[in-house]
Amino acid sequence: MYISKSFIPILKNNPSEAKIKSHQLMLRVGMIKQSAAGIYSWLPLGFKIMKKIEKIVREEQNKIGVQEILMPTIQSSEIWKESGRYEDYGEEMLRIKDRQGKEMLYGPTNEELITEIFRTSVKSYKSLPKLLYHIQWKFRDEVRPRFGVMRGREFLMKDNYSFDLNEKEAKKSYDKMFKAYIKTFIRMGLTPISLRAETGPIGGNLSHEFQILAKTGESKLYYDKKLEQLNPENIDPNELQSFYAAVDNQHNDNNCPIPKEDLKISKGIEVGHIFYFGTKYSEKLNAFIQDQNGKNIPVHMGSYGIGVSRLVGAIIEAYHDDKGIQWPISVAPFKIAIINLMPDDQDCATKAMDYYKYLMDNKIDVILDDRFCSIGKKLSDNELIGIPYQIIIGKRDLKNGFVELKNRQTNKIEKIETDKLIDILNKKLQN
Ligand code: 5CA
Questions:
Q1: Closest residue by Cα to residue 136 from 69, 199, 213, 87
Q2: Going by CA atoms, what residue is nearest to atom 7 of ligand 1?
């Protein structure tokens, strides 16, 4: 893609309404545009990043055999009345009426709807376990939507639901999901910390939330340093669940169960939450199955959420400096930016196009900054956007047979011979 032809409406200054870094940067770089309080349009750059995050989430779900479905955003109120949550959910639920005056709602979550889908078709223990997920917009009429996409009213969530015969089997599904979550966040370049959590309006008595470390995060976390040193190939959910981790209002130095030298304190952002709630919904909604003895029993359920749109902001909170975003390679909108400082110089333009064509032909996501603007603006806009590798082409260097390669994570710049650049880049990308 050429920046000159793309729609990336960069703002000159930080918008005053944005209080946290990710919100400022997302507006500034033209990733999102607010349409109403807590409701955003996703512009090309923001949308591309969200799709990359979604792809990682989807791949890790598919890998463990969870099947993708798509439930609607609008739900009928009837099933919510059956579960008793129609009243309980209170003002956070956006209620609407159709032209017949039928009460509908914009789904804040999907426990009821999925249970209704399950109960009509699954009747026997032989069909269990069943794990289903979807990635769909949710609406929660938060009292104070704030921090941009981090606490929106409309937001994209991956939610899935497990159905099992009994508590023991349900814990297996829970642990499978737990493991997939850790892998998902590590793939995004993040450090996930799992903590025992409150179950809130979802219910049940077993729940974990997943926070990712970010220096500008909202929560203060106290945890065993072992939680930071995970090998994604070798994750034991039970072991991880036994490690100490707490948010600041649960932590007390005087009765902390681990030695001080093992305790780490960092800031975090919640990006995922999982629940085992047993038969809470299946009993109320009549989702019964026949067990091995022919007895009808309510199915055991869990639900598992990842804040897909929140992750876009959370990753920025984890990866930025005072000049802009520093995308981790796995979710970056483009892996490489080619910055042609002198688009009106024939040699610079030819070299930029040579690299661009090679990268495009090899299916490497690349963006070419071919704009006619000052060198200062070009460099600072690219720092702001934060593409991981930036090839900087200037007239003088090119005459001597060199270009610059900048790593946006470290901000280190190397001078590289023009014909060696592709090999070096390929090696870096493989790493
Ligand atoms: N039904 C369960 C699991 S599927 C559920 O809804 N869990 S939740 O309420 O904890 O939400 C799951 C994830 O969605 C959260 O971890 C968070 O990352 C994201 N999320 C929740 N509320 C918002 C919001 N207002 N804005 C952006 N993301 C949100």
A1: 69
A2: 305
pTM of the model: 0.96
- Tens of pLDDT, residue by residue over 225-238, are 999 999 988 999 99
Element containing residue 68 per DSSP (H, E) = strand 67-68
Does the Cβ of 272 fall within 6 Å of ligand 1? yes
Residues 249-258, mean pLDDT to the nearest whole number = 93
Look at the block and give the residue holding tokens 């969530």: 157
Tokens (6 digits) for 266: 């960092």
The answer to whether residues 191 and 317 touch, using CB atoms and an 8 Å cutoff, is no
Say if residues 312 and 343 touch (Cβ distance below 8 Å): no
Q: What is the pLDDT of residues 77-101, one digit of tens each?
A: 999 999 999 999 999 999 999 999 9
> How is residue 39 written in tokens?
């409701």
Token pair for residue 306? 């990842």
Q: Which residues pair with 406 in a beta bridge?
A: 390, 413
CA of 211 to the centre of ligand 1 (A): 12
DSSP H helical ranges for 188-279? 237-242
- Give the mutation target among 34, 40, 157, 281 for probing the ligand 1 site: most ligand atoms within 8 A of CB: 157
Longest dimension (CA), the chain: 82
